[in-house]
Amino acid sequence: MRQTLQEGTARILVIDDEESVRKGLISILIREGHIAEGASSAEDGLAAAERNRYDLVFLDVRLPGADGIGLIPRIRSKSNPPEVVVLTGYGSVPSAVEAMKRGALDYVEKPFHTDRILSLVRRVLEINYLKEEVDRLRGQVRQLTAPRIVGQSRAILGVLAAVDRVALSPTTTVLVRGESGTGKELVARAIHDRSARHDRPFIAVNCASFTESLLETELFGYEPGSFTGASGEGKEGLLAAAQTGTLFLDEISEMSTVLQAKLLRVLQERSYRKVGGLEDIPLDVRIIASTNRDLERMVKEGLFREDLFYRLAVMPIRVPPLRERREDIPLLAHHFLAQFASQMGKLLRGFSEEAMENLTERHWPGNVRELRNAVEFAAITCPGGEIQEEHLPEVREPGITLSRAEDVLVLPGSDRSIRAMEEILIRRVLEETGWNISRSASILGINRTTLYNKIRLYNLDRDKAEKTSTTPARVSSPGRDVTLPAMPPRLSAPRVP
Ligand SMILES: Nc1ncnc2c1ncn2[C@@H]1O[C@H](COP(=O)(O)OP(=O)(O)OP(=O)(O)O)[C@@H](O)[C@H]1O
Ligand SMILES: [Mg+2]
């Protein structure tokens, strides 16, 4: 990078048919340590400007057979274009004004003074320096403000490596999978931020938040009068808003099969039509979809289109649940604590050993989001200093967040007596431990004799259980469903302080 604003070497092109002017200018510039080249016609000048990168072009406005001013937009049409300074005859101010309207930086009257030329070059170097500085600072701001994916576990490093790989191919569709709160949206944003599309729009749509027809018009937009109630002007959709950028389709499993078919067509054709429209609009958008559902199972059950599934799953990224990367918990907890401490303007210095141990042992069915909430709770509760175990929220009542269909325990809609629930819970734990009585008793927090008594009381039978055991599913019943997360495998029941 340049040390001072005015120092440095500029690359300069002089376009002038008058040999004495051209050579005179070039020799002044070279004497000052710049790199200068000449062209004697509009054609040669344009070709040189096309081929090489210049910081500055001195351009004669009166070239034989060409209008010099008309060249300015052409010279400046490439990305990162050179500045243009026009050389005009004495007293031709109107053409100088016209040149500046067309994008020239300034003008110099012939015959020119060396000082005037050199001060213009310094100005151009200063402009370039400032442009570079703005670019550099923009990059830093992006890095500092971009949400960071925190973690050093093998699992999360694998995710990051996949993010980097897929970021490099800016049109590849990605399917981000994982339980609720694992950081799927963060991963989608990271793909966008690390891709060539990073300075283009990132548009996130939650497919679960709209009815089918609303989601369709939100995505595709509509032509005026295309349906009853359509506004008179029509509307651009989110696909249009995401052009050249990234569209994140959150909770893709909730999209109706009709819309799934339309999305498939978009992915195949790389174009779309507005609702009520006839024109195919080319689409340059990377699509990232995410889901916390078992899409394969939904395909089998006819709830999700198989062709769309394969089209989306070109590049699947699975974000592992927090309990599979417990070594990230301290890092994440400190990361969130620093955030909340600075937001709240509080002096909070880390966690006591017991508090951290408590955090790393929890089951975290709500994953990183739940951990973040717990740290926020602690940051509010703790008056200052070190977070103690007593500042942590109690282990959540089971049943608030459902992580996976497999983690759900279904309770009957009709009989909600404690007895009925106890029976279901005991049966479920026995099934999970393969009828290991000691382990079941320890998970249930009762002794073995009590467990035997309950097995007899409820008439639980291992063989019968295995034959009738079904995969739990959410069952609707009059009133509300009640669901409980399953016991974490081999883990003690959630700790209640
Ligand atoms: N590795 C991580 N580092 C830092 N913050 C994280 C990480 N993973 C998740 N978070 C934070 O946890 C919260 C939940 O993440 P996110 O919204 O991306 O999850 P999700 O998988 O999309 O959840 P859902 O399925 O409920 O939509 C966000 O505040 C996010 O910033
Ligand atoms: Mg999400």
Keywords:
disordered N terminus; binds adenosine-5'-triphosphate; 5-stranded parallel β-sheet; alpha/beta; 20 strands; Rossmann fold; 497 residues; 19 helices; binds magnesium ion; single chain; Helicase, Ruva Protein, domain 3
Describe the fold and architecture.
- Helices cover 43% and strands 15% of the residues.
- By secondary structure, the chain is of the alpha/beta class.
- The chain has 4 domains: 11-137, Rossmann fold (3-Layer(aba) Sandwich), CATH 3.40.50; 154-318, Rossmann fold; 324-391, Helicase, Ruva Protein, domain 3, CATH 1.10.8; 405-485, Arc Repressor Mutant, subunit A.
- α4 links the parallel β6 (83-88) and β7.
- The radius of gyration is 33 Å and the shape is elongated.
- 30% of the residues are buried.
- Residues 1-5, 397-406 and 466-497 have low confidence and may be disordered.
- Adenosine-5'-triphosphate binds next to α7 and α15.
Low-confidence stretches: 1-5, 397-406, 466-497
Strand order, sheet with most strands: 2-1-3-6-7
Mean pLDDT: 85
Radius of gyration: 33 Å
Which oligomeric form is depicted?
single chain
The proportion of strand residues reads 5-15%
Shape call: elongated
| Helical proportion, percent range | 40-55%
Ligand list: adenosine-5'-triphosphate, magnesium ion
Structural domains: how many: 4
Total of DSSP H or I helical runs spanning 4+ residues = 19
CATH class group of the largest domain: Alpha Beta
Structural class: alpha/beta
